[in-house]
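ok so I'm stuck.
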Amino acid sequence: MTVSRMSFAGAFPEGLGAVLGLEKAVGASGLESGLVTLVKLRASQLNGCAYCLDMHLREAREAGESNARLDVVGAWREIDSRFTARERAALALTEQVTHVSQGGVTDDVWTQVEAEFSEHEIGALLTAISAINVWNRIAITTHQQPEG
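replied:
not stuck anymore, here's the structure
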């Protein structure tokens, strides 16, 4: 059984506060909370973060997101009818930013994002993607376990 290595919040509360500041900025940005949740889920899937997947899936269901959409976030490219063009652009950007070392963000994806989001929203979206990647790395490294 994997045991948590440490409490990040207890060990470095200033770091926790900094990452929470990113979350607060995204929350105040005007981006739709459902879209931000999809970003969090997709990045957490790519990174293999069970702790974050568990938390954000629970939050999405509590917010009224359908299981039909949540069940296929990992295969969003295959199902045009369940995700809007805006969500699809955000998910594509999430994948490429999360795997930035594999070629960065392509011009095609950037064009899709620019077609759906204002510059302010793109800044917020990049911050949301970056924040969940930080959370994933902290949770995976410290062996955080899903609740229950």
